[in-house]
Amino acid sequence: MLDRVNRRGFLRVTAMATAMGAVAACGGGPAPTQAPAEPAATTAPAATAAPVETAAKYAESPTLADQVAAGTLPPVAERLPLEPLVVQAVDRPGEYCGDLHRVLTGPTDMGGYTCMMRESFAGWDFRSGSIEVIPNMATGWDVSEDTKVYTFHMRKGMRWSDGEPFTADDLVFWYQDIALNSELTPSFPAWLKVGGEPVVVEKVDDYTVKFTFAAAYGILLEYLAFRGEALMAPKHYLSQFHPTYADADELAAKIKDAGFEHWYELFANRNSYTTNPDLPVLWSWKVETPFPGQRMVSVRNPYYWKVDSNGKQLPYFDRLVNDLAENNEVIMMKTIAGEVDYQYRHMGFANYSLMMENEEGGDYKVLEWIGGPFPCVYVNQSYGDLPVRELLQTTEFRHALSYGINRDEMNDLFWYGLAVPGNPVAGSRDPYWEEGFGTTAIEFNPEKANELLDSIGLDKKDVDGFRLRPDGERLTLLLECYPSEGGVPAIDVFSQVAMYWQELGIDAQAKEIERSLWTQRALANELMMPSYDIAKVLWVIDPVWFVPYGTCYWAMAYAQWATSDGTAGEEPPEDIKQIIQWYEAMRSEGDAAKRLELGRNILRRHHEEVYVIGTCTIDLQPFIKKNDLVNVIEHAVAENRTNHEQISWPWQVWRPA
């Protein structure tokens, strides 16, 4: 195993500084030391379009050809847009094939499904070894010189999976009737607010839409590649569940029949592409049989708008099949038995050796993608118990906890000594990272930890030897996690952390709870120390890890305040409020060098304060690829922000007959 891991030391990937073109080395290489260059142009390159004269040569899956022959589906040339996106394969154009198999743990594991589906005007491309933003649903875009106005050119003739046209009206419907509707969307999406104002979305014509911001917005395209799926709402279908369009009596009957009390509950239910087979979609596959059940089956979208270089409509696979597994152990059994085709979710480093040993028997190859979890403890700065919050907000207390962790021992226990100890302050592949970030209070120094704890009034103990809070109550810390997909059992990692803190005289316990309950409690600001993973790159388009925004596990009440213009949550203290201000300034800053400086201010504050306490991280994510699959990238980034396995474009993956 060590030989295989060490051989990847020469691998390097360039990571793009969002909208800036910065390059950073992977796997412990030097950090970027200069500001990224400004974009040279404000117009996106046009996506490759199929020549008009080849329209008659378009091909389709035999399963769809049968429907065309039966007269139940139009010919493929009529189902494609005038300019379908021509996909240049990772290796070579392919052939149509049957089922692509993955495995998930059920309805609470839908991130493993949505990452394969979600698409937007912009998309990610990693074929060159760099993370690049390219036109996707849009043929291209124009950006004003001040980066306040983005004009997107949609694909004429593009259709939803039910054959209805996809036009600017759908985007305006999302904007006016979903995003601006306070019952459906109590808080306007924070990533589409700049300068304190929501974006204005306007229809220019049927296939042109304009986004206008109150201030400069230099990272919108990256945001769209990550989050833009949310804007794609089929007006022709969803209107029947919206009071602005539906007959009141008919809508009331639908609400009652579905067992809901309010229209917006019914609307949200029908607008879920993971559970509603009737919802038209734009993705490569469309759910046919959702969970619960032994498998979740999705079938090819007959109106999918991409073709290969030979004119074959994509995807190559007829069906995406997600088998149900009760837990990670069952997933691993299915994996080594050869029942998984294309997946890194749940394939953690802890099982790397087991997966390697069974490559031949399972007829698969373990690819080494670049990523992997960074188990860490979020010290909730807005926790509801005020005496506890006062301690959690004390810098010396957080530093003491960090000094109390024996990361070298944990490295040997869980990662064979191959991980890097530290606290999470992005990663060396991120352009905002600086040498030394994440090293505050990471040496194992229980003497220093005890000294700090004593200095802040925690020097008294009860009869059991546990420290007492200043109010006389026993100091109890609760680290809560769920059975994560990261590989090493999360409860084992965080139980080890709790044990170290017990040795400091703190009554610390780790507890594993069901995933949906964990999420519910975290978002309700009920967890003292949510324990989970964290972003290492591209955090600027998913700022919740380092900025109180959205689902910010280390300051949930402050995140609610920040994203509601102060109408919800709690106003944060100045040190955290400044982080919010830095991020707002960064998003609306047109100069790349100044954006870099502001982003580093945020990370530097985390480096100094240690709001999130880390363990160790290893930049290797095992990826299972069946030996007969073609067009899978051998070494790609494994990150949520680049849509996990979708970075290898599953629509162009195929299996020879």
What does it look like?
- This protein has 657 residues and is an alpha+beta fold.
- It has a domain of 242 residues: Roll (Dipeptide-binding Protein, domain 3), CATH 3.10.105.
- It has 21 helices and 25 strands.
- It has a five-stranded mixed β-sheet, with helices on both faces. A four-stranded mixed β-sheet has the order 2-14-12-11, covered by helices on one side.
- Helix 17 links the parallel strand 19 and strand 20.
- The longest helix has 18 residues.
- It is globular.
- It starts with a helix and ends in a 19-residue tail after the last strand.
- 51% of the residues are buried.
Could you tell me the strand content as a percent range? Answer: 15-25%
Could you report the average pLDDT, rounded to the nearest whole number?
Answer: 91
Q: How far apart are the termini?
A: 33 Å
What are the segments in which pLDDT stays under 50 over at least 5 consecutive residues?
A: 1-42, 44-55
Q: Specify Rg, calculated over alpha carbons.
A: 25 Å
Shape descriptor: globular
* Tally of alpha and pi helices: 21
Main structural class: alpha+beta
CATH architecture of the domain at 376-617: Roll
Could you give the count of β-strands? 25
Question: If strands are numbered along the chain, what order do they take across the biggest sheet?
Answer: 20-19-21-17-22
The biggest beta sheet reads:
5 strands, mixed
Oligomer kind: single chain
DSSP helix fraction: 25-40%
What would the CATH topology of the domain at 376-617 be? Dipeptide-binding Protein, domain 3
CATH classification class of the domain at 376-617: Alpha Beta
Q: Give the name of the CATH superfamily of the domain at 376-617.
A: Dipeptide-binding Protein, Domain 3
